[in-house]
Design brief:
Blueprint lengths: L1 H19 L4 E7 L2 E2 L31 H4 L11 E3 L4 E7 L18 E7 L8 E6 L1 E3 L9 E2 H8 L3 E5 L7 E11 L16 E11 L33
Parallel strand pairs: 3-11
Antiparallel strand pairs: 1-2, 1-4, 4-9, 5-6, 5-10, 7-8, 10-11
This protein binds 2-acetamido-2-deoxy-beta-D-glucopyranose (3 copies) and copper (II) ion (CU).
One 2-acetamido-2-deoxy-beta-D-glucopyranose binds next to loops.
């Protein structure tokens, strides 16, 4: 009996692992609607351990780790850099298993905002400037419901599509655009206090080369790691409203 219940617990734990592995990263980028190719110019996350226990689509939860910048081994450049012009429309294609419309993008439990930052490449102190953010856009109708969040409704139902614009007039040169999802479904507790919980970050960096004769320099921004603090509102957040 004892060993049977242990086995049941082990199976339940495995089932859990499978569930929480429904995670995500950027598989492709369109520039003004033109697909640049799968994995092209994207610093796709490395595996965080040997499979099957390691994944390349796991969240980052350690806010002081370099992984928070461009994900696991995100300092390693991709051999390709995507050429763009100021004002171009970049479309990121977030997926879980494969780059198809049948893909589930991310587990439905993952409520939270989507964001994008831009930095000169390589980044320096406070060089990441936020250029896009969408979070909770509709309050829940009933108690203990999450409402409508950009990840769980818009991004997921939109087949993983996220649009950002290269800032108008931006000075030519190499930049990184750091797309990010922040899943808050376990963020009622801080990772610092309970490492089994905490906000889940999905950063992913895209290498672009801005062309043209733009003159706009980026203002001072934030650093990754550094920008986010464990106890800060929005990093600790209970997505289930008490109305
Ligand atoms: C950006 O490109 C995407 C994909 O082609 C398109 O769906 C979207 O409408 C475009 N956005 C703008 C503001 O042009
Ligand atoms: C978080 O990352 C920092 C820097 O790499 C490391 O020193 C620390 O041990 C990590 N903390 C946890 C809980 O893994
Ligand atoms: C892609 O992944 C989804 C699950 O996310 C699966 O249902 C679908 O069959 C997969 N398609 C292909 C072509 O592998
Ligand atoms: Cu998760």
């Amino acid at each position: 009996m004892k060993s049977q219940s242990l086995l049941a617990a082990a199976i339940a734990a495995l089932a859990n692992v499978k569930l929480v592995s429904a995670h995500t990263f950027i598989w492709g980028v369109w520039v003004n609607g033109v697909d640049q190719g799968t994995n092209v110019g994207i610093r796709s996350p490395a595996y965080n351990g040997a499979p099957p226990r390691g994944y390349n689509n796991s969240p980052v939860k350690n806010l002081t780790s370099i992984d928070l910048r461009c994900n696991v081994l995100g300092e390693n450049p991709n051999p390709h850099t995507i050429k763009v012009k100021p004002g171009d429309n970049l479309t990121f294609d977030w997926h879980h298993n494969n780059r198809t419309k049948a893909d589930d993008v991310i587990d439905f439990s993952h409520h939270g905002p989507i964001l994008a930052y831009i930095s000169p490449d390589p980044p320096t102190e406070n060089s990441f400037v936020k250029i896009f953010e969408k979070g909770l856009y509709e309050l829940p109708e009933k108690e203990f419901a999450p409402g409508k969040w950009a990840i769980s409704t818009e991004l997921k139902s939109g087949f993983g599509i996220m649009n950002v614009r290269v800032p108008a007039g931006l000075k030519a040169g190499p930049y990184l655009i750091r797309g990010e999802l922040i899943a808050l479904h376990e963020a009622d507790a801080s990772f610092e206090i309970n490492p089994r919980r905490g906000a889940q970050f999905y950063p992913n960096c895209v290498q672009i080369e801005v062309e043209g004769d733009g003159t706009v320099e980026l203002p001072s921004g934030v650093s990754f790691p550094g920008a986010y603090k464990y106890g800060a509102p929005g990093i600790v957040h209970n997505v289930c409203f008490h109305v």
